[in-house]
Amino acid sequence: MSSQLTRILKKAVAIEEESFKLYTLAQEKAKLASSKVFLKQLADTEMEHKRKLVGIMENKAQLLNLGGQKGKLEDLKIVDYMKDIARLSDDASYQEILTYAAQREKRTHDHYVSLAERFQGTSVGDLFEKLAEEELKHKMELEKEYDDNLLREN
Ligand SMILES: [Fe+2]
Ligand SMILES: [Fe+2]
């Protein structure tokens, strides 16, 4: 494996670890049990993504049942036109965490799409294509959670 590809995969692993941390932190901020379950599932998915990336680095565990169940999900585009949150403060509210996380998922999706194009036709390209799909799904799920929470509070 080229060192450039190794660097790309390592960066993706770091992204997945960061996502895992974010959803673990968010579980503490969430009030509803259903929110905690949702965030725990997201954290687990990110761990699974990391595992797939590491697997491909070690050149085993070829593809790839990522287990993305394809339910119908609507892209609410809530965060698309919001100002980007650069970083989260320690006292960030649950809503801010959800916004930040959804924006981050969108960026990760875009990053993986470009990698999927770059490595098109290879197992690495296939992996990034599947990961991109899942990150977009995460973004939409986070927006739904955001929306549900707003409705509950108002
Ligand atoms: Fe991920
Ligand atoms: Fe994600």
Task: Break the fold down into its secondary structure elements and pairings.
Blueprint: H1 3-29, H2 33-57, H3 94-118, H4 123-153
Helix pairs in contact: 1-2, 1-3, 2-4, 3-4
Description:
The structure is a single chain. This protein has about 150 residues and is mostly helical. The chain has one domain: Ferritin, CATH 1.20.1260.10. About 70% of the residues lie in helices and about 0% in strands. The protein is built from four helices and no strands. It is elongated. The chain starts with a helix and ends with a helix. The model has no long low-confidence stretch (mean pLDDT about 90). Bound molecules: fe (ii) ion (2 copies). The site of one fe (ii) ion has 5 residues, from helix 4. The site of one fe (ii) ion (FE2) has 6 residues, from helix 1, helix 2 and helix 4.
The small molecules bound here are:
fe (ii) ion
Biggest sheet features: none
Just name the CATH architecture.
Up-down Bundle
Query: Helix- and strand-based class?
Result: mainly alpha
- Return the CATH topology: Ferritin
Q: How many DSSP helices?
A: 4
* Beginning-to-end CA distance, first to last residue: 53 Å
Q: How many E strands?
A: 0
Order of helices and strands: HHHH
How many domains make up the 3D coordinates?
1
Uncertain runs are: none
> What is the CATH domain class?
Mainly Alpha
Average pLDDT taken over every residue: 89
Task: Provide a concise account of the structure shown.
By secondary structure, this protein is mostly helical.
Please supply descriptive tags for the structure shown above:
154 residues, binds fe (ii) ion
